[in-house]
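This week, look over our next protein:
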Amino acid sequence: MAGTCLPSCLLSQGPSLLFSSSNQFSEAKCRIVITSEKRCLVRCFAKKKISLADQILDYIEGGPKLRKWYGAPKLLPKDGSSSGDDDEAEEEEDDVDGDKDAVFVTDGDSDLGQMIILQLIVKGTKVKALVKDKRKALEAFGAYVELTTGDASDERFLKKAFRGVGAIISPTEGFLSNVKSLRGVKHAVLLSQLSVYESSGGIQAMMNNKAKKLAEGDEKAVISSNVPYTIIRTGKLENSPGGNQGFNFRTGAAAKGSISKEDAARICVEALSVVPPAGLIFEVSNGEEVVSDWEGQLMKVMQTQSEKK
């Protein structure tokens, strides 16, 4: 094809991405249709599979070259682990804290955890995540997330996991109630379904009993942690698309209403922008109120809570 001039009419259709909650994805065949006096069709097939995070950034921002703007760290080994030398060096570090600019997301394998992580990546935030399957998570998020796996009740593990962490987002029950100390963390954000569990009755109440106890334990733990906290009591979590509805922040909204997981994930991320002096607890479900300024909205909620005391 060298030396051949391109036709004046060029149509190209890029890849379309399909995402699922299980981190699986598919890429449609890309095609380039060139028309001139004689028509010809050229199909090209992508040979290299890139991570879910890379695909989302390409899809949203328009190209692989822009990924570097999101500060992807140095690539880790395929199993998601760091080298033994690095681990030894970390163990030798003292308790003097350096930059605490990372956000630690618990249960990064869950739907909510994945949604939160992806929104943090798009914001250019440094992310660390607790996952059950490092290899699978590495395939999903590539080098944009520092992955870790371990027991929340293991103080040695947490000391290492929290190194460089300034904030925690816990989207599911059971993590914070097992943590003995949040030393060094500057802000903890907890998504709680406690209002939903407390309002359920009959068989549903029995089914929610274990989750209710975990939610109660998480809230108690974060309130007594001496770390500024934000507890977001949401309505029933739904698998509906986010961004299509407004919000309801009134008292009782969580017990009676519902909210899409995508919207709940966004609120968790936006909550990082407002660190309360001590603690902030509020309810939210999907509703009629349109929010364009999340920092202002959260400040308003905090002011309303302060006036009620």
Observations:
- The chain has two domains: 10-44, 52-87+99-308.
